[in-house]
Amino acid sequence: MAEIDAEKAHKAVLLDETLHFLQPQHGGLFVDATLGLGGHSEAILESSDEARVVGIDQDSEALSLARKRLVRFGDRAMTFQANFSEIGRIVADAEKGEPDGILADLGVSSLQLDSETRGFSFRFDADLDMRMDADSGGHTAAELLATIGQEELANIIYKYGEERASRKIAKWIIEKRESGNPITTTFELADLVRRAVRTSPKDRTHPATRTFQALRIAINGELDILEQFISDSVDLLKINGVLAIITFHSLEDRIVKQAFQRLSGKCQCPPRIPQCVCGAAKKVEILTRKPVLPSASEQNDNSRSRSAKLRACRKIEN
After folding, report:
1. Burial 266-292 (b: 16+ CB within 10 A, else e)
2. Lowest mean pLDDT, pick from 28-37, 93-102, 132-141, 256-265
3. Chain centroid offset of residue 74 CA
4. pLDDT tens digits for range 265-302
5. Rounded-to-integer distance, Cα 183 and Cα 191, Å
6. Does residue 106 carry a pLDDT above 50?
7. Quick one: what percent of the chain has pLDDT higher than 90?
8. Among 157, 196, 215, 218, which residue has the least CB neighbours within 10 Å?
9. What average pLDDT does the structure give for the chain?
10. Cα separation of 170 and 193, whole Å?
11. Cα–Cα distance between 191 and 199 in angstroms, integer?
C-alpha cells in the first residue's frame, strides 16, 4: 500500500471548538483517547510549548502514521496502542500525572474509511472485516454474519443502526447464508441492503449506511464501553479539567448526554422510584447545554463533519 500523508488524509473535526473547551494554550497534560491520525493532538501541542499529549489508539496503522506526524514534538507526545476503555491504565503507565483535559473523537478515521481492504466502506469491494484493531484476533463482520441467528442480527441492525427495515435485511442475509452463499464482502452486503430497503430519490445517504454502522459498532463493542470510559475519564481529570467528546450518530450522543447529566447530579431514574438508584452524583459542570455542531463552512469543506456533535464538561469539587 502506498504511504499515506497523515496531514492530508485527515481533517480533525470541530478542531477550533474542541480547543476552545480544552484551553491547551495554557499548557498542561492532555489525553487524546482516540488519536487517529493525530490532527487534534498536533493542534494541542502547537498551542503551547508547555502542552503535553498522551495519545491512545488501537489501530496500529493509524498509530504509526500519527507517530510520524507528532515526532517533531519530541517527548511532549507519548503514544500507546490500546482501546480507549483502557485510559486508566495508560495514564498510570505514562506517569505524567492527572490530565488537564481528555478528548475522544468517536468517528471512524479517514484512514479506515478510505482503506480498500478493511471493509468499513461500501465504496470498495473488500472482505467484511470492520475491526478497529485488525490484529486483535476478534471476529470479523463476515464471521459474525456466518454464525449469528436471524433475530439477534435484526436486533443489532435495529439497535445500533436505527434501521426500520432491520428484520427484512436480517431475513435476507440469513436466507442467502442458508442457500450456501454467505455474505463475505462489502459489495455483497451493500447490494443486498439496497434491494431490501425502500428508498426515496431525495435520500442523501446510501441505504446500507445504517447497516454498516450497526455491524461496525457490534464488532468493536463501541457503545458497551463508552459510558464507563466517560466515568473513568472524569475520575482521572484534575479539578477543573475538561472532558470533550465528539460523536457521529444519535446513539453515541444520547449516551454522552445522559452520562454527563448523571455526573452533573441529575437523576436518571423513573419519577415513581422513591430512591435514586442510577448513581447520579455532582462531579461535573456541563459546558455545552446543547451539542456544538460544525459550522457551515466546515461542513462544506469536510463532508464527514456533517453529523459531528461535540459535548464537553468540567470536573468540579465534590
Report:
1. ebeeeeeeeeeeeebeebbbebbeebb
2. 132-141
3. 27
4. 987 777 777 777 777 789 999 999 999 999 999 999 99
5. 10
6. yes
7. 77
8. 196
9. 91
10. 9
11. 13
What residues contact 93, with CB distance under 8 A and at least 6 apart?
Answer: 80
Cell of 312: 464537553
Please check whether residue 183 is in contact with residue 192, taking contact to mean a CB–CB distance below 8 angstroms: yes
What nine digits make up the cell of 181? 452463499
Determine the Cα–Cα distance for residues 40 and 18; give it in Å rounded to an integer. 8
Q: Please choose, from the candidates 275, 158, 172, the residue with its C-alpha nearest in 3D space to the C-alpha of residue 211.
A: 158
Query: Is residue 236 over pLDDT 70?
Result: yes
Nearest to 110 by CA among 309, 305, 291, 307: 305
Alpha-carbon gap, residue 73 to 49, rounded angstroms: 9
